[in-house]
Design a protein that fits this description.
The protein is α/β, with parallel strands linked by helices. The chain contains 18 helices and 13 strands. Strands 3-2-1-4-5-6-7 form a seven-stranded parallel β-sheet, with helices on both faces. A six-stranded parallel β-sheet has the order 10-9-8-11-12-13, sandwiched between helices. It starts with a strand and ends with a helix.
Length: 401
């Protein structure tokens, strides 16, 4: 079976769980099928014969990706219109892109981003007979007002006229695919409202923590520091990192440090908010080896998001036995239904509650209990089970191994 994993969203999102999942699925599914990747090179992309790597991924420079302008509604609408109408601004003509996919001859295409939808529609119109799977990382199934926009959705997804309601847009979008994968139970229940082809497959990870010796000194940290960390996109509308910064700045102590790892359109705002607090360290985007150093240095991991699927960073932190603090929006039911102990959590915008939880983790007993919870998360979410579910889904849709 030939499987093509597509992630055109990688042009702007070269760092984070979505890009990492595209590479992980391509690599893992490649052990049983012929699996290749179509998209832009990210920090996770490995060299593989048969991959369709698009040129021009650097057209959107780092400064552009980190600019507030990249999140302006007028810019997003113009960009999405161009993609939907002509598959333009992708660094390749649609004729050449179609030819490359036709040469590969996929039995199934896995779409990892809403930006992939126009391409799959085009390929279907050219007569390619493949099965399609969409993985929803929270983009479409979320009901968060911070994401959804009646004006932007129809253009973004290419599902019809501007006058369509959000629910009609979602219905057209999800029904296009032969299967839509939800990463958590709430997403699954939301997608089921629009299609009978919803499938629940939790994100999972099997990693062997690589404890980096001397990691703290390489990050400008001292041995006795209590280090709180966030790893991911600097994207306020979803990630809500401002709440973490405000909570941290209200804490006293020169031995407290906050590591903020990643980049995105909110980076500048966060640096302004930090107001020169030297305890707050912005590392920018880091490669996998440096990320290992970060995890090896953390005493607590915080994910303050307004919405999540099942964040890979949570699973990574758990694998390193790091105590985890989640916003209640990121604390998905799936973490509560697997016999896992209670994860420390707070209301998304409750700065005081987050501040108190950080203080609580400095106590030896609370820290020890939180480590046990993280170890339980790591045990329950097995990557081998996740890959098996994707393999079974592909075989069921295509009718053969």
């Amino acid at each position: 079976m030939r499987v093509l994993v597509v992630d055109l969203g990688s042009r702007l999102n070269t760092f984070g769980g979505q890009a990492k999942m595209a590479e992980m699925l391509t690599e893992r599914l490649g052990k049983r099928f012929r699996a290749n990747y179509l998209g832009y090179r990210t920090i996770y992309t490995k060299r593989r014969e048969g991959d369709i790597l698009l040129k021009g991924s650097n057209v959107a420079s780092q400064s552009t990706r980190n600019s507030r302008l990249s999140e302006a509604r007028s810019v997003k609408i113009l960009y999405n219109w161009a993609v939907v109408q002509r598959l333009g601004m992708l660094g390749i003509s649609r004729e050449e892109l179609c030819r490359k996919v036709q040469e590969f001859g996929p039995d199934a295409i896995i779409a990892n981003s809403p930006a992939d939808f126009p391409l799959l529609k085009l390929l279907k119109s050219r007569g390619l007979g493949f099965r399609s799977i969409y993985i929803d990382h929270g983009s479409i199934s979320t009901t968060a007002k911070q994401y959804l926009s009646k004006e932007g959705i129809p253009i973004t997804f290419g599902t019809g006229l501007m006058g369509l309601t959000i629910n009609r847009v979602k219905r057209r979008f999800f029904r296009f695919f032969d299967a839509s994968v939800a990463l958590n139970r709430d997403q699954f229940n939301e997608i089921k409202r629009f299609t009978s082809n919803a499938v629940l497959i939790n994100n999972c990870l099997d990693i062997r923590p690589a404890v980096a010796k001397g990691a703290r000194s390489g990050l400008g940290l001292r041995r006795g520091d209590f280090v709180v960390g966030y790893i991911g996109r600097m994207f306020e509308r979803q990630k809500n990192v401002s709440t973490l910064i405000k909570a941290f700045m209200g804490l006293d102590g020169g031995d407290l440090k906050l590591l903020l790892v990643g980049d995105g359109p909110s980076t500048g705002s966060y640096k302004t908010l930090a107001n020169g607090d030297k305890r707050i360290i912005f590392t920018g985007r880091l490669g996998s080896k440096r990320i290992e150093e970060v995890y090896s240095s953390l005493d607590a991991f915080v994910l303050p998001s307004h919405w999540e699927g099942l964040a890979l960073t949570v699973l990574e932190a758990a694998a390193y036995s790091i105590p985890i603090i989640l916003s209640k929006s990121a604390y998905i039911k799936d973490l509560k239904l697997h016999g896992i102990g209670r994860v420390l959590s707070f209301d998304d915008d409750d700065i005081g509650a987050l501040r108190r939880l950080i203080v609580t983790l400095r106590g030896r007993g609370a820290h020890r209990n939180a480590v046990k919870v993280s170890n339980s998360i790591s045990e329950k979410f097995s990557e081998s089970n996740m890959v098996k579910k994707y393999e079974d889904l592909l075989i069921r849709l295509c009718g053969r191994p």
